[in-house]
Amino acid sequence: MEFWNPYTETLPREKLEKIEFSYFQNLLSYAKANSQLYKDKLKGINIDDIKVFEDIKKIPFTYKEELRKWQEDVDPFPYGGLLGIDIANVSSFRQTSGTTGKPVYVPESYESWQWRVESWCHILYMAGFRPRHRVFLPFGYNVYVAFWEAHYAAEKLGCEVVPGGALDTKGRVNKIIELKANAMCGTPTYLLNIAQEAASMGIDPKSLGIERALGAGEPLPEATRKRIEETYNCKMYDHIGSTETCGFAGMCEAQQGLHIVEPFFLVELLDKDTLSKEVSEGELGVIVITPLGRRSFPVIRFNTNDVAIKGPSTCECGRTSLKLMEIVGRVDDISKIRGVLFSPKTVEQLIRSEFPEIVEYELVVTREDIMDKITLRIEADPKLNKDEAGEVAKRLGERHKIKTNLSCKVVVEPQGTLPRYDLKAKRFKDMRGKH
Ligand SMILES: [Zn+2]
Questions:
Q1: Of 93, 100, 120, 190, which is most buried by a Cβ count within 10 Å?
Q2: How far is the centre of ligand 1, averaged over its atoms, from the C-alpha of 318 (Å)?
Q3: For residues 117 and 151, what is the distance between their CA atoms, to the nearest angstrom?
Q4: Does 190 have pLDDT greater than 50?
Q5: In 3D, which of 36, 33, 37 has the Cα closest to residue 65?
Q6: Please, what's the largest Cα pairwise distance for the chain?
Q7: The pTM is what?
């Protein structure tokens, strides 16, 4: 097996934890001295009291809400109390998408950006990206971090990078063909959209010659991953990250779970209800993460609100980093409907694995009187006639009931009714309000 960093990627766990803990201590001192947010947050904490790994739990979590608050009317503009360096040393700007509220503005220095890129090199290399790859990046090159890290990391790895911004989907298909690109990074559903567009142009996606792809930006259920592999006849890999934390875990060629990029990050997986106990292997935990090498924007014990299943720290690839076996979704998305625990990812998994004739869908939960109702809006393959689409809807309703123990109403929508996403898909809408 090959590694991007043969030393750190195969270190025994005790050594990794030792390194991470010393990085954590350094970051604490640095943040307390240089970031207004942490000057305030760590006021009552004597950093010398953080002596052993377990002491990390004495440091409070950081929430996205706080990041927003510390940028409102706090100097220097626009980074406010989050900035950890002299503003003159900021070399690039990114921001969060703001889908859940006001965006957070993220400052990067040249060094911190290089740190992000190096972390991403691990992710791409473990997914089999090599210098022989001509990597097409079909995303809007703009203020969102999206695949910017992938762009720079692929270059650093020695790949040839083709920026695929400012093109529509058809234009992107043509560019892939023109340049014989053989690798891609994209949101999983957008990769499927590209394949669909190619098919509508009379081109078999398999003939595009895409050898491997890396997904980001939305959960990638196993069924979607396999579907992309079959559609392109390629290898498809997953990764997880965010603007605030950087890309922090990726899938190796064994394709079983995501390796945390250690010792770049300290990751805790904590019991969902108490947020205090580290869960055991096989259990669900909330991901709490500390990027250990970023000074421009220090973030300590960031509560991502994402839930994952804790995996082992052994793998057939030989890496010793901890694995996340499955990203189950947002804490908020895993809710109770009519008293039954429900995850929208189950529905995505069902549709992607058993209903190739459904091209887009949206899942809506509403409350009528006191009853929760699930509606699944779908768009069927345009090749199907009305009766055939109705048949698909009926079968989906039955399978949904079996998979989730909940009945739902399936509505077939006309072509083009439902939104398409190339970033941050939002197919689950809980309209029940606070409850
Ligand atoms: Zn592995």
A1: 120
A2: 6
A3: 9
A4: yes
A5: 37
A6: 71
A7: 0.83
Domains along the chain with CATH numbers = 8-115+240-330 (3.40.50.12780), 127-237 (3.40.50.980), 335-430 (3.30.300.30)
CA of 49 relative to ligand 1 center, distance in Å: 36
Q: How close is the Cα of 315 to the center of ligand 1, in Å?
A: 5
- Å from CA of 332 to ligand 1 middle: 29
pLDDT band at 1 (very low <50, low <70, confident <90, very high): low
CA–centroid distance, 9 to ligand 1, in Å, is 10
User: What is the Å distance from ligand 1's center to 250 Cα?
Assistant: 9
Question: What is the average pLDDT score of the chain?
Answer: 92
What confidence score (pLDDT) does residue 435 get? 42
Nearby residues of 23 by Cβ (< 8 Å), 6 or more positions away: 263, 266, 292, 293
118 has a pLDDT exceeding 50: yes
Q: Which amino acid is at 277?
A: K
CB atoms within 10 A of CB 69: 15
Cα–Cα distance measured from residue 106 to residue 363, given in angstroms and rounded to the nearest whole number: 32
